[in-house]
Specification:
Rossmann fold; single chain; 20% strand; Beta-Lactamase; 495 residues; globular; 16 helices; 9-stranded mixed β-sheet
Length: 495
């Protein structure tokens, strides 16, 4: 058969040769492609390096040219325009005219943010919808927006060194330093935003930076209603409780909104009262006229000059305050604050980190008492707590990012007397009894949103009501009426 030899010895040899030629050609193409790709990558690396070097030269020239004016005139519009024009000229010197308008504009902003602000996070700091910024690595930044953490890949630092330089820029004005011997620092920005930074060796994957932004807008009770963080009955009761000089602890976890809620509650303090606020960093925005603000101070790098929250609480007692408002209690200063609460400075407010009211009473407060240089036995601690605290307001950040007041709880008292008032049969004589007045009842998750309803338990705190009425404050008893679930109630779920 014609062509049959193709399948014989010679045919197999021809096929083998053709296959070999094909493989060699493919290998040639692959090697050539790889070589070209490598050359392209190397070329891109070279161009990127030259670009970074040119940008650094521009920054150096700007720093030399404007010098101290960068510190003194940074917020002036005329100065910003002058710097922008100068950077534009230097870009032309380094890169020529053959660059796009968009690229030039972005580079000008990038350089100005680095010199006048905090580099790639400057825009994030200026965004009012962002409440927290988390730099987990130099090339990975997360933000909290509307209660949810999201990655912002368009914002990154140029390198690990770039991130460290920004951290140093943040901590220098507050008299702190960060280095191998002091690898972590807490501080705040000029606007009050809280800052935490770490570097190796305590963060082995590289430097980190966390900024909890300071809200420029003070939220009102109406804002909390709009956000679904409480209902009208709860807001009314809290207003009356503050006006009636109840001692209130706002309890919650990290990032739950404790300080913001404390700020809102302070709205209800009467205008004529003298208030002393005590904070690690001044965040509270009280509108009353007679407000004196005290701020704690960390020790210097040499370990001197510290002014603690406890020292400020003790000092506040000498300032004739009607109310003491402490931003957060997290050590033995709780003893001094509670003694003030129970001896003439009722109506004081503070926040404490705890997951729920029971944990606050049984776990957190005993630990804080133990951190004081004044020692109390267990029963003395419990008596002091019952004499000092009227209400616990628990706020929680839920799974969907929303923040809700989950409990308004009355500290009823200790042992038999409190249990009898609550009509409890199995009495525990050493127990501090609590009773919810209002609480949030979660019913499920719909479309990723937590839904539920606020309920009144039917408990009316007699001691608080009597105190308010003795001060001439009318208490609408209907707000305490117990809720019964109806079809209409089901339509009022809070999402």
């Amino acid at each position: 058969m014609p062509g049959n030899e193709f399948f014989g010895q010679s045919g197999h040899e021809l096929l083998r040769q053709r296959l070999q030629q094909t493989q060699e050609f493919d290998a040639f193409i692959m090697n050539r492609s790889f070589s070209q790709s490598l050359e392209q990558n190397q070329s891109m690396d070279v161009r990127a390096k030259k670009e970074r070097e040119a940008i650094e030269r521009i920054k150096e020239k700007i720093n030399r040219r404007f010098g101290e004016r960068i510190l003194t005139d940074a917020k002036k519009d005329e100065f910003k325009q002058e710097m922008s024009d100068t950077i534009n000229e230097l870009i032309t010197e380094e890169f020529g005219m053959d660059v796009s308008y968009e690229w030039r504009r972005n580079l000008i902003k990038k350089i100005m943010d680095d010199i006048l602000g905090f580099g790639p996070i400057q825009d994030l700091l200026e965004d009012p919808e962002i409440t927290e910024i988390m730099v987990t690595r130099w090339n990975q930044i997360y933000v909290e927006r509307n209660g949810r953490l999201v990655l912002v890949p368009e914002h990154t630092f140029d390198s690990e060194e770039h991130l460290k330089n920004v951290i140093e820029k943040i901590v220098q004005p507050i008299g702190r330093r960060i280095n191998d011997s002091e690898p972590l620092v807490d501080g705040r920005l000029p606007d009050g935003s809280r800052v935490n930074a770490t570097i190796p060796p305590i963060s082995p994957d590289g430097a980190t930076l966390t900024i909890r932004k300071f809200s420029k807008k003070k939220l009102t009770g109406e804002d909390y209603l709009k956000f679904g963080s409480l209902d009208e009955r709860m807001l009314k009761f809290l207003e009356l409780a503050v006006q009636g000089r109840c001692n209130i602890i706002v309890s919650g976890g990290t990032g739950s909104g404790k300080t913001t809620l404390l700020n809102m509650l302070s709205n209800f303090i009467p205008e004529w009262e003298a208030i002393v606020t005590i904070e690690d960093s001044c965040e509270l925005q009280l509108n009353q006229r007679n407000v004196r603000r005290l701020e704690a101070r960390p020790p210097s790098p040499e370990g001197t000059g510290e002014v603690s929250i406890r020292a400020l609480v003790r000092n506040a007692l000498r300032m004739r305050p009607d109310r003491i408002v402490v931003g957060e209690v997290r050590d033995g200063c709780v003893v001094d604050l509670f003694r003030a609460m129970s001896s003439g400075h009722d109506g004081s407010l503070t926040t404490i980190h705890a997951n729920n009211p029971r944990d606050l009473i049984d776990a957190t407060l005993p630990i804080l008492f133990g951190m004081s240089d004044m020692k109390f036995d267990e029963m003395a601690q419990k008596l002091q707590i019952c004499a000092s605290v009227d209400l616990i307001v628990q706020i929680q950040r839920l799974r969907d990012g929303s923040r809700k007041i989950t409990n308004i709880t009355h500290v009823v008292g200790l042992g038999r007397e409190a249990a009898t008032r609550l009509k409890i049969k199995n009495i525990e004589p050493d127990k501090i009894y609590l009773q919810d007045i209002f609480k949030f009842k979660q019913t499920g998750i719909v479309g990723g949103k937590v839904v539920g309803k606020y309920v009144a338990t039917g408990y009316a705190p007699k001691e608080i009501i009597d105190k308010l009425e003795s001060m001439g404050i009318d208490v609408p008893m209907e707000i305490f009426k117990a809720d019964t679930e109806t079809e209409n109630d089901k339509q009022k779920m809070v999402g």
